[in-house]
Write a structure and sequence with these properties.
heterotrimer; A mainly alpha; B alpha/beta; C alpha+beta; B: alpha/beta; Rossmann fold; 8-stranded mixed sheet; 12 helices; C: alpha+beta; D-Maltodextrin-Binding Protein, domain 2; Dipeptide-binding Protein, domain 3; 2 domains; 6-stranded mixed sheet; disordered N terminus; binds adenosine-5'-diphosphate; binds iron/sulfur cluster; binds magnesium ion
C-alpha cells in the first residue's frame, strides 16, 4: 500500500466507524422500544415475590419506569453520550462494569474457538478440495456432516463426560483450577493476565480449561467453514489462472496455496467475520455446560428480568464487537483483495 | 519412435469422468522445431482437452496414448518431470485473458513466478518480467509490473499472459484461442506479437482456434478436428485452396470473404456437433455432411488417409481429390 | 493433561487433612450452585440464592435453625412484645463485632431496618406492618408496628444486620444498593473473600465470631456456580465439589446409597399450585366444574413418577409438614366421577387456559399430565409456558388473566401466614397486584386471615388457619400439585449438613465440618 492508499484507507475506516455509530444509536432505540413491548414489568421483578402494589409503584418511580417511553429514552441517550450505560436493576452495578466482568471469559472462549476454527477448517477444506472425490475427501465430508449435525449442547456433554470426566484428560468445568482460584489481573482475560504476570502455570491451566469448551463451540463453525472452503477451493482450482500457474512448472503446493487458496480466502474471511458474532451468541450454551461465566448469561438474565438498560447495554457492546470484527475483516480484505483496495482508493 | 519432431502426439485419447466417452479419440500429430501449427475445429471438438492433457493439466481426465517432447513421454509422467517441461519447454496461453490471470497477484509476480521457482532471485526475476513486458508491448513496464490484472485492458492482459508464457524461454508456445475473447482490432496485434516472438526465438507455435480465418495468415500447417478426431491435416496453402474433407469445406464456407460487409449474415454449418458419448455411427460428420452417402452412416469413423500434402478422413476422399484437380 | 485434576486434588487434600489437634476451623468446603447470586445485598434476602450467602456473612436478630420451626435467639438474646402487640423489645448480645472489628449495637440494628424500609427491600416484605425502630440503649432496640402482627418475630429471620459505619456513606447512591451488592458489611461467621459473578463466591471464617469456633468447622466456603446438573454430578464424582444440590432426579437416585456419598432428604415446603381463576366466567365460576378439574390432577402419580418419590402427597392448601396444616381437604383423584360432573352439566368441550412457568420442570410435567387427564373427561387444557413477570402482569387484569396459573410458593418462615395470606387474601388478588391468581375474594376467609395475622395467640391462630383451609377446600379454587422434597447429594466427607425449611436451598455453615 502506498501513502495515498493508506490515507484513503484511514478515511474509509473513519467513514465506516461513524456509519456504524449511527447504526448503534438506531439499534439502541429499537432495542429500547422493543423492550417496552415485552410483557412483564421490571419493577415487579425487582420487588421480588410477595411485594405489594405500593412497593412496586414506588420502585417504578425510582427506576424511572413511570415516565413516558420517549422521556425514558431521552434520559438514556443523554447518559449514553457521557459513556454511562446505566445501572443494572438486578446487580445494582454499572452495566459497563457488569459487562467488563463477564465479557473477557466469553471473548477468550470465542478467540480460542475462532483460532481452532481457522487452524482446522481451512487446511481441512483445502485438503478435501485437492483430494476431491478421494477417500480423504469422503472422510472429511463425513466429519463435516457430523460436525454440522451434532447439537452443541450434546457435544459438550459428551466431551465433558468422556474426555474430561472418564478419561481425565481435561478439566471438567470452570475457568481455572481450584488452586488458582484467587488469581486475578487487570484485564480480566485470564490468558493475558497470567502471561503478563509470567504465571505460565496459570496460563497453561486456563488454556487447558478453555480447550473442550472451545472445541465444543468451534465444531459447528469448523464444519461450516470446512464445507465452504472446500467448495470455494474446488471452484478456484478450476480457474484458468490456476491452470496457467501450473503451466509455469511451479510445485502443486505453491499452485494451491498461492493461487487457489489465496483467492478462496476472500469469501472465507467474510464468513469468519460473520461467525464471530454468531459464536459470541452461542457461547452461553457452552458456558452453561462447562460452568464458565459469560456475557450470554448476563444478557439472558437481563432479558428475563426485563432489565432494559442491561439488554440495551449488551446489545450495544455486541454491536461494537460486530463493528470491530467487520472492520478487521474489511482491513484484511483490503490486504487480500486489490480490487477492494482500489475501490477504496477511488473514493 | 524415430522422429525429428520436437513434439510427437500419438493416439492420444482423453476421457472425462466415469463415462467412457472420449472427448479426444486417438489423435496423432507432430510438431517440428520452429513450425507454426494451427489446430481448428468447432467448439467442443476436443482441442483444449488435447493440449491440456499433453501437459498433464487436465485434473480429472483419463488420458491414454502418447505425447513425447523431445522423445520424453509426457502422458502418465509425474509432476516432477512435467514441471521440468511446463513453462520451461512448453509455454501456454489460454483463451480468456480475464480469467487467465490471478486477480490478487501483481502481473510481475505472475510473470516471474516460474523463474523464482527455478531459483532466480526476486530482483533478477522482476527485472526480467519488466523486460518481458516491454517486449510484449506493455507501455511503462517498470511501473505496470506492480499493477494487478484488473488494471489492464483485455488486450494488454493477453500480452501479460504471453509474457508469462515466454518468461522461461520455452521451445513451444501453445496458444489456446488466444484472440477469441479480444476485439477484432487487437486480435491481429496479439497474433503478430506471438508470431514475431516465435520467429525471433526459434520457437514452435501451436495456435488453437475455432475460427479458421484467424490463423489463415500465421500457420504453416493446420489440423482440423471434429468430434474428438482429426479429420484433416494440410498445409495452410493447400487447406484454403483445396480442402479435402467436407467439414473443412464447411468451415471455409463460413468465413467472411472479401467484399462482404462485416454485418452480413454469415453462413454456418447446419446442425450441431455431437457430444462425446452420443456419437453417430459411421462417419461422425455424416448427419451434417452435404455429401453423405449410405456408406458413410455405417461402421467405424473413416480412417485418416495420407495424401501428398496431408491427411483426410472421408470415405469419398478419392472422389474429392479428383474433383478438385 | 491428566495433571489438571491431580494438581487440584493435592492442595484440596492438604486443606482437608484431619484437624483433630488444631482448634479452629479448617478445610475448604466447596458447594456447587446452579444459580449465580444477582448481588450480595441483604435487602434482597428473599432471594434464596442471596439468602444462602447472607447466612454466612451476616447475623439476624432471631433465627430458625435447621430442623426447627420456631425461632431461637441469635443477636437478640431475648425479646418481649407489648400488650397491644404494637412494639417488640429486643435485648442484644454484647461482644458482637462486625468483620471490621467494630461493635454491633442497637444503632446498627435500627439503621438496618430504616435502610430496608427506605429501599423498599424485599427483606421486609413479610414483616407486615413494621413501622419504626427506636434505640433504647446500646444493646436494646424497640421495633414498632402500625398494627398487631402475630408472626412478626418469625419474619425477622431474614433481616440481616449491616454495619452502619460502612454502609451509611453509600446511602446516597440508591440506598447503598450498589455498594452492598458487591461488598459485605456483616458480623456473621464468614467473611466475604471474593465474589466472581457466574463463577464463584468464597467466604473465610471470621476468627472473632461471637459464637466461637469450638467443634468441627470449615475455614473456607466456596460456592462454585455450576448451572448444568450433569456438570454438578461430574464435579461431585471427581471430588471437585462436596455438595451438589441441583442434580437431576436420575443422578440423585444414582448417587443414593453409593459409597462415598450421602443423600440428604429434607421435608421441604416449596408447594406448587395451579390456581384456578374463579372470576374467569363460564363454567370456571362454578365450584362444581372446578372440583371436577381438580379431581383430574393425579397428585400421587406426579409425586411417584415425576419426582420419583422425593416428595410428599399434598392433601390441602398447605404443605403437609407446615405448622397448622390440615389434611384430607382435596378430593381424591377420580376421573370417572370428574367425567360424570362434566357430562351431567353439559360442560364437555370447555376450554381452559393455563399459564405455567416452564423454567420449573415439575410445572411442565404437571401441566402435561393435567392436560392428558382433562382430555379424558372432555375438557381441553391449553397450556402456555411463560415467564414469571409475564404471568404476574397478565393476572393484573381480568381481561388478560389466564383461567389457571402455575406458581410455586417459597414461604420465608414456617408459619401458615407465609403461605395462606398471599394465596387467598382478597387484597392479594392478581388484579390487586398480588399473587392470589385465583382472584379469590371471600370475606369469611379475609376476616380469619386478618385476625390470625394480628393475633399473638398461637393456638387461636392455628384454629383460624384450620378453618380457612376447610373453607377454601370447599370452594375448589386451586390445587397444590406437588410438594417436592429437598434432595441434596453430598460427599461423605461432609458432616453436619441439615436441611432448613426456613431457608430453602441454603447451608447451615456453622454446623458443617469436613472429615
Ligand atoms: N473438465 C471436463 N469435464 C468433463 N467434460 C469436459 C471437461 N472439459 C471438456 N469436456 C468435454 O470435452 C469435450 C471437448 O472439450 P474441449 O476440449 O474444451 O473442446 P474445444 O477446446 O475444442 O472447444 C467437450 O464435449 C467438453 O464438454
Ligand atoms: S465420410 Fe461421408 S459423411 Fe463423412 S465427411 Fe465424408 S462424405 Fe461426409
Ligand atoms: Mg477450447
Amino acid at each position: 500500500m502506498n501513502k495515498e492508499t493508506a490515507k484513503n484507507v484511514v478515511v474509509y475506516i473513519g467513514q465506516r466507524v461513524s456509519l456504524t455509530a449511527i447504526a448503534l444509536v438506531v439499534l439502541s432505540f429499537m432495542t429500547f422500544t422493543l423492550g417496552q413491548l415485552v410483557p412483564g414489568d421490571a419493577a415487579v421483578v425487582a420487588a421480588g415475590p410477595n411485594a405489594g402494589n405500593e412497593r412496586i409503584a414506588e420502585l417504578r418511580v425510582e427506576m424511572g419506569l413511570d415516565l413516558p417511553i420517549h422521556k425514558q429514552y431521552a434520559i438514556y441517550l443523554s447518559k449514553l453520550s457521557r459513556g454511562d450505560l446505566g445501572k443494572s436493576w438486578f446487580t445494582h452495578q454499572p452495566i459497563w462494569e457488569d459487562i467488563k466482568a463477564r465479557l473477557p471469559a466469553s471473548a477468550e472462549l470465542v478467540f480460542l474457538a475462532m483460532l481452532l476454527n481457522v487452524l482446522i477448517s481451512v487446511p481441512l477444506g483445502v485438503l478435501a478440495a485437492t483430494r476431491f472425490d478421494s477417500k480423504t475427501d469422503g472422510a472429511i465430508r463425513l466429519i463435516v456432516m457430523a460436525g454440522a449435525g451434532i447439537p452443541i449442547f450434546w457435544l459438550g456433554l459428551i466431551l465433558q463426560h468422556y474426555v474430561a470426566g472418564e478419561a481425565g484428560w481435561f478439566p471438567i468445568a470452570g475457568r481455572v483450577s481450584f488452586e488458582f482460584r484467587d488469581f486475578s489481573g487487570s484485564t480480566g482475560f485470564l490468558l493475558i493476565d497470567s502471561a503478563a504476570q509470567g504465571e505460565w502455570r496459570i496460563f497453561w491451566d486456563a488454556l487447558n480449561h478453555l480447550f473442550l469448551p472451545a472445541i465444543t463451540l468451534a465444531t459447528l463453525f469448523i464444519a461450516v467453514v470446512t464445507r465452504t472452503t472446500r467448495s470455494t477451493v474446488l471452484r478456484t482450482l478450476q480457474e484458468d489462472y490456476v491452470t496457467l500457474a501450473r503451466s509455469k512448472g511451479i510445485s502443486e503446493y505453491q499452485v494451491v496455496v498461492r493461487h487457489a487458496l489465496r483467492n478462496a480466502l476472500i469469501p472465507t474471511i467474510t464468513i469468519f467475520g460473520m461467525q464471530v458474532g454468531w459464536m459470541l451468541s452461542t457461547t452461553i450454551l457452552v458456558e452453561e455446560i462447562f460452568s464458565r461465566p459469560g456475557i450470554g448469561k448476563y444478557a439472558v438474565k437481563a432479558i428475563t428480568q426485563s432489565d432494559i438498560h442491561g439488554v440495551v447495554g449488551v446489545v450495544l457492546v455486541m454491536g461494537v464487537i460486530f463493528l470491530i470484527t467487520n472492520l478487521i475483516v474489511d482491513i484484511v480484505h483490503l490486504f487480500l483483495n486489490p480490487r477492494h483496495r482500489e475501490s477504496v482508493q477511488g473514493k | 519412435m524415430q522422429s525429428s519432431n520436437i513434439l510427437e502426439v500419438e493416439s492420444l485419447s482423453v476421457r472425462f469422468g466415469e463415462s467412457r466417452a472420449k472427448a479426444v479419440d486417438g489423435i496423432s500429430f507432430g510438431l517440428t522445431k520452429g513450425e507454426t501449427l494451427g489446430i481448428a475445429g468447432e467448439s467442443g471438438s476436443g482441442k483444449t482437452a488435447s493440449i491440456l492433457s499433453i501437459l498433464g493439466l487436465h485434473q480429472r481426465a483419463t488420458v491414454e496414448g502418447s505425447a513425447q517432447f523431445e522423445g520424453q513421454e509426457l502422458i502418465g509422467a509425474d509432476n516432477k518431470l512435467l514441471n521440468k517441461i511446463r513453462g520451461k519447454r512448453i509455454g501456454l496461453v489460454l483463451q480468456d485473458p480475464f480469467a487467465a490471470l490471478d486477480p490478487v497477484k501483481t502481473v510481475g509476480h505472475q510473470i516471474s513466478e516460474g523463474l523464482r521457482a527455478s531459483g532466480w532471485s526476486k530482483k533478477r526475476a522482476m527485472n526480467h518480467a519488466i523486460h518481458l513486458l516491454e517486449e510484449v508491448g506493455v507501455p511503462s513496464a517498470s511501473q505496470r509490473v506492480n499493477a494487478y490484472p484488473h488494471q489492464f485492458s483485455g488486450g494488454m492482459r493477453q500480452r501479460v499472459v504471453i509474457a508469462m508464457a515466454l518468461a522461461q524461454d520455452p521451445d513451444i508456445l501453445i496458444a489456446d484461442e488466444p484472440t477469441t475473447a479480444l476485439d477484432v482490432r487487437i486480435q491481429k496485434q496479439v497474433l503478430d506479437l506471438m508470431k514475431q516472438q516465435c520467429e525471433s526465438r526459434g520457437m514452435s507455435l501451436v495456435i488453437i482456434t475455432h475460427d479458421l480465418g484467424v490463423i489463415s495468415n500465421y500457420t504453416d500447417r493446420i489440423v482440423i478436428m471434429y468430434a474428438g478426431k482429426i479429420v484433416e491435416e494440410s498445409s495452410r496453402l493447400k487447406l484454403f485452396d483445396q480442402p479435402l474433407h467436407p467439414y473443412t469445406q464447411g468451415l471455409l464456407d463460413c468465413l467472411p470473404t472479401l467484399g462482404h460487409s462485416e454485418n452480413e449474415y454469415l453462413k454456418t454449418i447446419g446442425g450441431q456437433p455431437p457430444i462425446p458419448g452420443k456419437l453417430p455411427s459411421g462417419c461422425r460428420y455424416h448427419p451434417r455432411c452435404a455429401f453423405t452417402e449410405p456408406a458413410c452412416t455405417n461402421g467405424n469413423n473413416p480412417p485418416l488417409v495420407p495424401v501428398k500434402w496431408g491427411r483426410s478422413a472421408c470415405i469419398q476422399l478419392e472422389k474429392f481429390l479428383k474433383e478438385s484437380q | 493433561m491428566k495433571p489438571t485434576i491431580r494438581k487440584f486434588l493435592v492442595p484440596l487434600a492438604a486443606l482437608l487433612l484431619p484437624t483433630g489437634v488444631l482448634a479452629g476451623p479448617s478445610g475448604t468446603l466447596v458447594i456447587a450452585e446452579n444459580l449465580t447470586p444477582e448481588n450480595l445485598d441483604p435487602a434482597n434476602s428473599q432471594n434464596s440464592t442471596v439468602d444462602q450467602l447472607m447466612l454466612g456473612m451476616y447475623d439476624t436478630l432471631v433465627q430458625f435453625t435447621a430442623g426447627e420451626t420456631t425461632v431461637s435467639p441469635r443477636l437478640a438474646t431475648d425479646w418481649s412484645a407489648s400488650a397491644d402487640g404494637l412494639s417488640y423489645t429486643f435485648n442484644l448480645r454484647s461482644g458482637v463485632t462486625f468483620h471490621d472489628g467494630s461493635a454491633l449495637t442497637a444503632d446498627d440494628v435500627c439503621f438496618t431496618f430504616d435502610r430496608n424500609q427506605a429501599a423498599g427491600a424485599n427483606a421486609l416484605t413479610d414483616a407486615g406492618p413494621y413501622d419504626s425502630c427506636n434505640i433504647v440503649d446500646d444493646h436494646t432496640v424497640q421495633l414498632n408496628l402500625s398494627a398487631p402482627f402475630g408472626p412478626f418475630v418469625s419474619a425477622l429471620g431474614r433481616v440481616y444486620i449491616v454495619n452502619k459505619d460502612l454502609v451509611e456513606p453509600h446511602m446516597a447512591d440508591n440506598h447503598a444498593r450498589s455498594w452492598l451488592s458487591v461488598n459485605e458489611a456483616g458480623s456473621g461467621p464468614y467473611v466475604l473473600k471474593s465474589y466472581k459473578p457466574d463463577d464463584s463466591i468464597s467466604m473465610t471464617a471470621y476468627a472473632d465470631y461471637w459464637a466461637g469456633w469450638d467443634g468441627n468447622h470449615v475455614a473456607e466456603v466456596v460456592f462454585r456456580v455450576v448451572p448444568e446438573a450433569s456438570t454438578q454430578a461430574a464435579l461431585l464424582k471427581a471430588g471437585e465439589v462436596h455438595i451438589a444440590p441441583d442434580l437431576t432426579i436420575d443422578d440423585k437416585i444414582a448417587f443414593q446409597g453409593k459409597d462415598g456419598y450421602i443423600t440428604d432428604i429434607g421435608a421441604a415446603a416449596t408447594p406448587l399450585y395451579f390456581m384456578i381463576n374463579v372470576q374467569a366466567g363460564g363454567p370456571l365460576s362454578d365450584r362444581l366444574f372446578r372440583k371436577a378439574i381438580i379431581m383430574a390432577v393425579d397428585i400421587k402419580a406426579l409425586c411417584d413418577a415425576v419426582l420419583q418419590g422425593f416428595c410428599a402427597y399434598p392433601e390441602g392448601p398447605m404443605p403437609s409438614n407446615w405448622p397448622g396444616h390440615v389434611g384430607g381437604i382435596y378430593p381424591e383423584f377420580d376421573l370417572e366421577a370428574a367425567k360424570k360432573i362434566i357430562d351431567d352439566n353439559g360442560w364437555a368441550g370447555t376450554e381452559v387456559n393455563l399459564t405455567f412457568l416452564p423454567e420449573e420442570e415439575i410445572q411442565q410435567r404437571a401441566s402435561e399430565m393435567w392436560q392428558a387427564n382433562l382430555a379424558k373427561i372432555g375438557v381441553k387444557l391449553n397450556a402456555t409456558g411463560d415467564t414469571w413477570p409475564a404471568l404476574y402482569a397478565a393476572a393484573q387484569s381480568l381481561d388478560t388473566a389466564p383461567d389457571a396459573g402455575g406458581s410455586s410458593a417459597f414461604p420465608p418462615f414456617p408459619d401458615p401466614h407465609g403461605i395462606l395470606y398471599g394465596l387467598l387474601h382478597s387484597s392479594k388478588m392478581g388484579i390487586n397486584g398480588g399473587t392470589n391468581f385465583s382472584q379469590y375474594s371471600n370475606p369469611e376467609v379475609d376476616a380469619r386471615l386478618d385476625k390470625a395475622a394480628s393475633s399473638a395467640d398461637q393456638a387461636e391462630r392455628m384454629k383460624l388457619y384450620g378453618e380457612v383451609q376447610e373453607i377454601v377446600g370447599n370452594d375448589y379454587i386451586h390445587v397444590l400439585v406437588a410438594q417436592p422434597a429437598s434432595v441434596v447429594t453430598l460427599s461423605d466427607k461432609v458432616v453436619g449438613y441439615k436441611y432448613n425449611v426456613a431457608h430453602h436451598q441454603t447451608f447451615n455453615f456453622m454446623d458443617i465440618g469436613l472429615k
